[in-house]
Automatic annotation (TrEMBL), chain A:
TM region positions: 12-30, 37-60, 89-109, 121-138, 184-202, 208-230, 251-269, 281-302, 378-396, 416-440, 461-484, 504-528, 610-630
All residue ranges annotated as the NADH:quinone oxidoreductase/Mrp antiporter transmembrane domain in the record: 138-424
Keywords: Membrane, Transmembrane, Transmembrane helix
GO biological process: ATP synthesis coupled electron transport; electron transport coupled proton transport
Name the record gives this protein: NADH dehydrogenase subunit L
GO CC, any one term: endomembrane system
Compartment(s): Endomembrane system; Membrane
Cross-referenced InterPro entries: NADHpl_OxRdtase_5_subgr (IPR018393), ND/Mrp_TM (IPR001750), NU5C-like (IPR003945), Proton_antipo_N (IPR001516)
Membrane topology (UniProt): Multi-pass membrane protein
Gene Ontology MF terms in the entry: NADH dehydrogenase (ubiquinone) activity; NADH dehydrogenase activity
Ranges where the NADH-Ubiquinone oxidoreductase (complex I) chain 5 N-terminal domain occurs: 74-122
TrEMBL record, chain B:
Compartments where found: Cell membrane; Membrane
Source organism: Geodermatophilus sabuli
One GO MF term attached to the UniProt entry: quinone binding
Function: NDH-1 shuttles electrons from NADH, via FMN and iron-sulfur (Fe-S) centers, to quinones in the respiratory chain. The immediate electron acceptor for the enzyme in this species is believed to be a menaquinone. Couples the redox reaction to proton translocation (for every two electrons transferred, four hydrogen ions are translocated across the cytoplasmic membrane), and thus conserves the redox energy in a proton gradient.
Recorded catalytic activity of this chain's protein: a quinone + NADH + 5 H(+)(in) = a quinol + NAD(+) + 4 H(+)(out)
Gene: nuoK
Protein name: NADH-quinone oxidoreductase subunit K
Record-linked InterPro entries: NADH_UbQ_OxRdtase_chain4L/K, NUOK/Mnh_C1-like
From TrEMBL, chain C:
Function: NDH-1 shuttles electrons from NADH, via FMN and iron-sulfur (Fe-S) centers, to quinones in the respiratory chain. Couples the redox reaction to proton translocation (for every two electrons transferred, four hydrogen ions are translocated across the cytoplasmic membrane), and thus conserves the redox energy in a proton gradient.
Molecular function per GO: NADH dehydrogenase (ubiquinone) activity; quinone binding
Name of the protein in its database record: NADH-quinone oxidoreductase subunit J
Residues passing through the membrane, by range: 12-31, 38-55, 61-81, 101-119, 152-174
Organism: Geodermatophilus sabuli
Keywords in alphabetical order: Cell membrane, Membrane, NAD, Quinone, Transmembrane, Transmembrane helix
């Protein structure tokens, strides 16, 4: 990496982080006084950050710019300089975060209009944007870790935003704890880097990673992967993400679909020089991606909660991205392209789902939807475009980005390549199935609404962001893959595209994927669209459906493998603490107390008793003296 | 007959005084027993002065007498004031300072 | 110095006579019920010790022992005894369980250990004698004075401070501050007396030819004891049954003139006891 010092506008890129941070600070410290205009300030800072990011990106001109800020920690041989790295990769993320973030802020103005704690919501959203920007702009692992924990905190606060609901509080706790598991991995990776290389900057680590032993590099790679899995909801830490849908829908759209959960992909892409050194870790990344891809897709097929379907879809799509980054240099660009397009259409889909829920009195049960297409035309059209983009309808964004990943998988050339490609194509079919099912349940068929529900279109402050994201969903793939190839933009980071031979012709792949997609959608129509939808989920179903409904028993596995033994261990420790440690301490105290009160009885107050003991002492002393002199 | 006889006599007197302190309850008698113990010590001092051929033992006995006089004066005054408040000169009755 | 002064027979006699007396005095002090008796027993022991001092070439100390100790200090003891009066604490019944047995056992042990130790350690103790320091013109008092006012001057001066302090302390402790006017006036006393059931004065103690102690109660005309005449704090004595005067007919001898204890003497002619 060759970085140049910042100049001109880029020197002010720290404002990207400072603006939303200042917004959060004002909203949190300002209290009720800011209630009336707080949401406008929150939105304004993010829009300003987006404009600044846009200007910075234009000023970037393919360079990698380092912005030195201040010394964060200088102790002994550890010298951490707080600095920002503004390069094409960061720029892409900055634009995604601030762009989608700004749209969702606007949407939230409408969505949260009636919430008494709207100001706090915007404060947390701003905090999240600031932390996420720090995460992607950091030029060293420590600052990245700060941002990493910051987004974790913001995610926790926002999932638990309606903390009066026990399910939300529990979900937030679950997300926080499972994220901690991953964060430990990331922290350990940073420790190993410092211990082995003595530096934590990207430049220093990536420049000298070649000198490390293979095992060490693999260890760093696996630890980083653990962190990425925790943050991105990947196997085996995927169970928190669907539960995180307890948060407000804009949060699900921004944090748990478009930005934060892709931080794992960013981390692995950023650490490409490390993964280039260790095929083992890369193979594990591949495996994680493929497994998660299938788990998400299968679980998504059986959910009745509209947000859960989208959440499992997110899990599955991020699995695609992991699969891609696991493929090595060939897949990084494909992963990032899919990340960007996914950011658009999944955010759009979540906003659409929020709009639907808004109309249905916050119900999330798709079995009580139906026939909404005519009542909510804008939502239907924007949601439909996002849906088509997601399932990879030809020439929409998902088509380009997903096909690129599948091509890259086949391009591995060996047997595993074909297996991974087949898995990816199968998952594409499943994606089409569950998304079509969602569409049919929500917008198609007859109304199955609960009493007192009067669906209506959302206000324009909500629909406009949905329209913008829908346009993005349609065009992003074409723009990023064909018109202005992301490959060339990212060349300074990942190297020039090689233009390798394709093992399977792209056309064949596209046709194959499209066929599978149509097959999946058709199956969904057969299952859902043709017949009446029961108001409650059928009980007598096959074991496969039952497993899918319970997300392949992820929670059960977690409970039986970790929670129960943990509880047992805790109980045992509590027992040992109560009986053993406390028992020893209390016993000692009781012994001392008892013996002292018994000794206290000797203090009778009778002078003659005391005199008697003095005489006894004198006798002993005399005897001892005599014994010594005589002996 | 030797000086040892005096010393053994002093030891016996001292012991009788000590036992008296332990078994008598009248504070004044207890005080007398203490005087007896002091006297036996004086006898020892005088005897050793004679044995060593110096007068320092006698001087010491003299000082013991002075201190004993002062102690008796103060001690009897204390006994009297205790008797005034408690109507008792028994050492067992002044036993409030206990567990 | 003459290391081999031999103790003479006279001294041995003195020791063997006075030693048991001193021991008896000590034991008597501990064992007697009456505190006044204890004090007297102690005087006995102290006198014996004073003689021992004189015998042991310390005539000044012997004099001081007799004058100051037995003379002054023991009188002080007796004064306080009179002030405090007799008391239940004079009882020799032990109230602390095991105290007496333990005290005696420990005492015997202590005496045995110290006595044996002293006897063993000093059996070859030479008797140097004090002839060298206080012989001839240099008397015992002069030698002691020389030492006190030279080597022990500081201690001696400090002793004076101690004595002053003790005197002041004793005065402070024994003194009772009484507010002027708090003492009841004669008018108040007499008013209080007339408010009781018994306005008249209490009878005085019985005064007889053979007993004029306050401990002797007065007798009522029918021969009963007048309980009002008991002195506080003193056990009433046995009523001193004076033989009642009988009459000229019975007066046979001077002794008989004192009367008889017989309840009805007048019936018997010629008297009874000769």
């Amino acid at each position: 990496m060759d970085t140049v010092p910042a100049d001109g506008l880029l020197a002010a890129s720290w404002l990207l982080i400072a603006l939303p941070l200042a917004g959060a600070a004002v909203l949190l410290l300002g209290g009720r006084r800011t209630d009336r205009w707080g949401h406008l300030l929150g939105t304004g800072t993010v829009v300003a950050a987006f404009v600044l990011g846009l200007l910075c990106t234009f000023a970037l001109d393919g360079r990698q710019v380092d912005v030195d800020l201040f010394t964060f920690a200088a102790t002994g041989s550890l010298d951490v300089q707080a600095g920002l790295l503004y390069d094409p990769l960061s720029a892409v993320f900055v634009l995604l975060i601030t762009g989608v973030g700004a749209l969702i802020h606007v949407y939230s103005i409408g969505y949260m209009a009636h919430d008494p704690r709207r100001r706090r919501f915007f404060a947390y959203l701003n905090l999240f944007i600031a932390a996420m920007l720090l995460l992607v702009l950091a030029d060293n692992f420590v600052a990245l870790y700060v941002g990493w924990e910051g987004v974790g905190l913001a995610s926790y606060l926002l999932i638990a935003f309606w903390h009066e609901r026990p399910s939300a509080a529990t979900a937030a706790k679950k997300a926080f704890i499972m994220n901690r598991v991953g964060d430990v991995g990331l922290a350990l990776a940073i420790f190993v880097m410092f211990a082995q290389l003595g530096t934590v900057t990207f430049e220093g680590v990536f420049g000298s990673v070649g000198v490390l032993a293979g095992g060490t590099v693999t260890a760093i790679g696996l630890l980083l992967l653990l962190g990425a899995c925790g943050k991105s909801g990947q196997f085996p830490l995927q169970a928190w993400l669907p539960d995180a849908m307890e948060g407000p829908t804009p949060v699900s759209a921004l944090i748990h679909a478009a930005t934060m959960v892709t931080a794992g992909v960013y981390l692995i892409a950023r650490s490409a020089p490390i993964y280039d050194q260790t095929p083992t870790a890369r193979a594990v990344v591949l495996a994680v991606g493929a497994v998660t891809l299938m788990i998400g897709a299968i679980a998504g097929c059986a959910q009745d909660d509209i947000k859960k379907v989208l959440a499992y879809s997110t899990v599955s799509q991020i699995g695609y991205m992991f699969l891609a980054v696991g493929l090595g240099p060939a897949g990084y660009v494909a992963a990032l392209a899919h990340l960007l397009t996914h950011g658009f259409f999944k955010a759009g889909l979540f906003l659409g789902a929020g709009s639907v829920m808004h109309a249905m009195n916050d119900s999330v049960d798709m079995r009580r939807y139906g026939g909404l297409a005519s009542k909510m035309k804008v939502t239907f059209v924007t949601f439909g475009l996002g849906y088509l983009a997601l399932i990879g309808f030809p020439f929409l964004s998902g088509f380009y980005s997903k096909d690129a990943i599948i091509e890259a998988a086949f391009d591995r050339g060996d047997g595993w390549g074909y297996v991974l490609g087949a898995v990816a194509i199968l998952a594409a079919g499943l994606t089409a199935f569950y998304m079509t099912r969602l569409m049919l349940l929500t917008f198609g068929g007859r109304p199955r609404w609960e009493d007192g529900v009067h669906p209506h279109e959302s206000p324009s402050v909500m629909t406009v962001p949905m329209i913008v994201l829908a346009v993005g969903s349609v065009l992003a793939g074409f723009l990023l893959v064909v018109a202005f190839p992301l490959e060339e933009w990212l060349a300074p980071v990942f190297g020039e595209p090689e233009g390798a031979e394709h093992v399977v012709a792209p056309l064949v792949v596209s046709v194959l994927v499209t066929l599978v997609m149509v097959l999946g959608a058709g199956t969904a129509w057969l299952f859902v669209g043709r017949r009446e939808v029961p108001l409650t989920a059928p009980v007598r179903v096959s074991p496969v459906v039952r497993a899918a409904r319970r997300a392949l028993y992820a929670d059960t596995v977690n409970e039986s493998l970790f929670m129960r033994p943990g509880q047992w261990l805790t109980r045992a420790l509590v027992f040992v603490d109560n009986r053993g440690v406390d028992g020893a301490v209390n016993g000692l105290a009781a012994t001392l107390g008892g013996s002292s009160s018994r000794l206290g009885r000797a203090q009778t107050g009778f002078v003659r008793s005391y005199a008697l003991s003095m005489l006894g002492g004198a006798v002993v002393v005399a005897g001892a003296l005599l014994a010594v002199t005589a002996g | 007959m030797s000086l040892t006889h005096y010393l053994v006599l002093a030891a016996i007197l001292f012991t009788i005084g000590a036992v008296g302190v332990l078994v008598r309850r009248n504070a004044i008698v207890v005080f007398m027993c203490i005087e007896l113990m002091l006297n036996s010590v004086n006898l020892t001092l005088v005897t050793f002065a004679r044995a060593s051929g110096t007068l320092d033992g006698q001087i010491m006995a003299f000082f013991v007498m002075v201190v004993a006089a002062a102690e008796v004066v103060v001690g009897l005054a204390i006994i009297m004031s205790i008797y005034r408040t408690r109507r008792s000169a028994s050492v067992d009755d002044a036993n409030l300072l206990k567990y | 110095m003459n290391p081999d002064v031999v103790i003479g027979t006279g001294e041995a006699v003195v020791f063997w006579v006075l030693g048991p007396i001193a021991l008896a005095g000590a034991l008597g002090m501990v064992l007697s019920r009456n505190a006044v008796h204890s004090a007297l027993w102690l005087v006995n022991t102290m006198l014996a010790l004073g003689v021992f001092y004189v015998v042991q070439e310390a005539p000044f100390l012997g004099a001081v022992q007799i004058i100051v100790y037995t003379g002054a200090i023991m009188i002080l003891f007796l004064f306080v005894l009179m002030l405090v009066g007799r008391d239940s604490s004079d009882s020799v019944v032990e109230t602390l369980r095991g105290q007496r047995v333990a005290a005696i056992l420990l005492g015997i042990g202590f005496a045995g250990l110290v006595g044996a130790g002293v006897a063993r350690a000093t059996q070859d103790l030479p008797v140097t004698g004090l002839a060298a320091v206080q012989g001839g013109e240099n008397s015992n008092i002069e030698a002691i004075a020389a030492l006190i006012f030279t080597r022990y001057l500081l201690a001696f001066e400090v002793t004076s401070a101690l004595l002053i302090t003790a005197a002041v302390g004793a005065m402070v402790l024994a003194h009772i501050e009484r507010e002027p006017g708090t003492r009841p006036t004669q008018k108040e006393l007499s008013r209080a007396r007339f408010l009781t059931d018994r306005p008249q004065t209490l009878p005085g103690p019985g005064v007889y030819a053979r007993a004029n102690s306050v401990a002797a109660p007065a007798l009522l005309p029918d021969g009963r004891v007048a309980e009002d005449s008991f002195a506080t704090g003193i056990d009433p004595q046995e009523v001193d049954q004076m033989p009642r005067p009988t009459g000229r007919a019975e007066l046979g001898s001077p002794d008989a003139a004192l009367g008889t204890l017989d309840p009805a003497p007048s019936d018997i002619p010629g008297g009874r006891d000769r």
